[in-house]
Amino acid sequence: MLRFDEFHDRLLSNEDVIAELNAFTLVRLDTNSRITIIDTQGNKTTAGELARQFNLSYRPGVLIFDQGNLVKRYDSLLYKFHFREGLRYISSGAYKTEDRRSYSQRRREELLLSGVNIDLSR
Questions:
Q1: What is the model's pTM?
Q2: Per-residue DSSP letter, 40
Q3: What is the per-residue pLDDT for 61?
Q4: What is the spatial distance between Cα 76 and Cα 22, in angstroms, rounded to a whole number?
Q5: Is residue 45 part of a domain?
Q6: Which of 51, 76, 79, 112 has the highest count of CB atoms within 10 angstroms of its CB?
Q7: What is d(CA 84, CA 98) in angstroms, rounded to the nearest whole number?
Q8: What is the total count of domains within the chain?
């Protein structure tokens, strides 16, 4: 399976991931396109230039912004749990007050206590 297929079929179609993605405005860009876009700072650019600007070398990749500022860059193939919880960390606003490690430990304990089976595999 191609990495694009895996990203879309395994991650983006997962109900838990979809639930977390609902908190975001999503824009899908083709880095091979020469169409001019406007970036989060109001500058004209292309998707390819934007990817280069943020050192997004892996495709598909994900850039997450808050108020026009880059908060998280996903630049590798991800497991559902890590992607979902990364999205939750940002959408909940926890990234503003809590480091990722502390958040992850707290969240993992919370999930386990509620009976959730944490599957770190694909």
A1: 0.84
A2: T
A3: 87
A4: 22
A5: yes
A6: 51
A7: 17
A8: 1
